[in-house]
């Protein structure tokens, strides 16, 4: 059974099984087999491929009525004023919202009412002790796992169940797992262009050109024909990132993309970590990629334990502990927080409310 998968541009790829096959065709057939452990078998293939990518047209936020200026009598200024005071001004910028999310595995109650919002343009870190559910919440955001209770809203619309092209619109969600998770039997070109070869009408030479451009954006040149086994760990992570940011440039509408990174710097030496942290920044819309173009990722979320990644790659932090977000704030506020849980975690002390 695949223990890791990557959701890239809304598509799941099997990871650790790929090395057992030696052809692109085999990888394609594994693609669907591996979805079954994730309980996605009932979805047709097209639906999985297009999950999270339904057209933005006709998009209507859950609170569209409340937000409408015609909802309230404008003469009732006190009501309008009190509403404007409680409503956050940039609600329309929210791309993903987790609202009171619960998740258990058997008797283990992992998430117990997790709520937060990811806004357009944000770079957010999720931190917290081991086993507290950070990867679990990423998978729930990506649509790989369904919450037991609570809601995930994608651009204001509640997502029902797992990824499905009919229910989610206007947002691509990419999940980049800790291991680079490449198809070992495919070349770098085939890995990076996998979705486009499989699901777009783009001609092969156009995909190949796009692959080369995307690899250049993450600082890789001349590796298209190599196999993953011929790359260093850091290069593999770059290839995985290229695979998650490539998209069909012939489409009329390109939805914003949120990238979810699960421990992207785990296992890397400090310098290699810095390279990856800068890469994460560079593909973000506020950054600049390796060829000097502005990045295209609208927002990203990084689960990490690494102090350097917290400091270098994210602006805002969510601290998850005992199934809830117990603290959130800007990265620079983290080390000076008075919250005893945060203080203990930041100092690595054995004394404090966190027990191992
Ligand atoms: N599919 C699953 N089935 C059973 N238990 C699971 C499953 N997925 C996660 N868990 C359990 O849920 C808990 C939270 O796991 P998760 O990987 O989300 O934690 P985490 O905060 O990311 O941990 P770490 O920082 O160590 O990576 C763990 O105890 C884990 O064993």
Gyration radius (Cα, Å) is 21 Å
| Beta-strand percentage range | 15-25%
CATH C-level: Alpha Beta
Main β-sheet, in a few words? 6 strands, mixed
CATH homologous superfamily assignment: P-loop containing nucleotide triphosphate hydrolases
CATH T-level fold name? Rossmann fold
In which order are the strands of the major sheet placed?
Answer: 8-9-10-5-11-12
Report the end-to-end length measured between terminal Cα atoms. 30 Å
* Low-pLDDT residue intervals, each spanning 5 or more residues: 1-87
GO molecular function, one term: ATP binding
Keywords: ATP-binding, Nucleotide-binding, Transport
Pfam families: ABC_tran
InterPro entries: AAA+_ATPase, ABC_transporter-like_ATP-bd, ABC_transporter-like_CS, P-loop_NTPase
Structural summary, described in words:
It is a single chain. By secondary structure, this protein is of the alpha/beta class. The chain has one domain (5-55, 91-347): Rossmann fold, CATH 3.40.50.300. Helix content is 31%, strand content 22%. It has 13 helices and 12 strands. It has a 6-stranded mixed β-sheet, with helices on both faces. A 4-stranded antiparallel β-sheet has the order 4-3-6-7, with helices on one face. Helix 9 (233-245) packs parallel to helix 10 (270-282). The longest helix has 14 residues, at 204-217. Residues 1-87 have low confidence and may be disordered. Bound molecules: adenosine-5'-triphosphate. Keywords: ATP-binding, Nucleotide-binding, Transport. InterPro entries: AAA+_ATPase, ABC_transporter-like_ATP-bd, ABC_transporter-like_CS, P-loop_NTPase. This is ABC transporter domain-containing protein. One of its GO terms (molecular function) is ATP binding. It holds the Pfam family ABC_tran.
């Amino acid at each position: 059974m695949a223990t890791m998968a990557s959701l890239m541009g809304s598509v799941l790829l099997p990871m650790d099984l790929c090395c057992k096959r030696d052809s692109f065709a085999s990888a394609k057939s594994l693609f669907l087999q591996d979805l079954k452990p994730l309980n996605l078998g009932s979805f047709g293939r097209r639906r999985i491929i297009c999950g999270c990518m339904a057209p933005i047209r006709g998009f209507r936020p859950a609170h569209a009525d409340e937000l409408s200026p015609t909802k309230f009598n404008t003469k009732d200024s006190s009501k309008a004023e009190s509403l404007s005071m409680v409503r956050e001004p940039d609600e329309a910028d929210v791309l993903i919202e987790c609202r009171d999310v619960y998740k258990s595995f058997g008797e283990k109650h992992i998430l117990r009412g997790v709520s937060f919002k990811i806004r357009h343009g944000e770079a957010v870190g999720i931190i917290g002790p081991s086993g507290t559910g950070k990867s679990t919440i990423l998978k729930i955001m990506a649509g790989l796992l369904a919450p037991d209770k609570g809601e995930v809203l994608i651009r204001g619309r509640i997502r029902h169940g797992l990824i499905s092209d009919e229910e989610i619109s206007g947002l691509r969600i990419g999940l980049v797992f800790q291991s680079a998770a490449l198809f070992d039997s495919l070349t770098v070109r085939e890995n990076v262009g996998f979705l486009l070869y499989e699901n777009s009408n783009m001609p092969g030479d156009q995909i190949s050109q796009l692959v080369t451009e995307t690899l250049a954006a993450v600082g890789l040149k001349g590796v298209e024909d190599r196999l993953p086994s011929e790359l260093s760990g850091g290069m593999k992570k770059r290839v995985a990132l290229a695979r998650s940011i490539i998209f069909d440039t012939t489409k009329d509408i390109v939805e914003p993309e949120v990238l979810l990174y699960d421990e992207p710097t785990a296992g890397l030496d400090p310098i290699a970590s810095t390279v990856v942290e800068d890469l994460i920044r560079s593909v973000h819309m506020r950054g600049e990629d390796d060829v000097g173009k502005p990045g295209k990722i609208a927002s990203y979320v990084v689960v990490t334990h690494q102090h350097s990644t917290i400091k270098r790659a994210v602006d805002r932090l969510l601290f998850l502990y005992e199934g809830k977000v117990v603290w959130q704030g800007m990265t620079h506020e983290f080390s000076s927080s008075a919250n005893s849980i945060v203080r203990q975690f930041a100092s690595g002390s054995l004394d404090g409310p966190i027990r191992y």
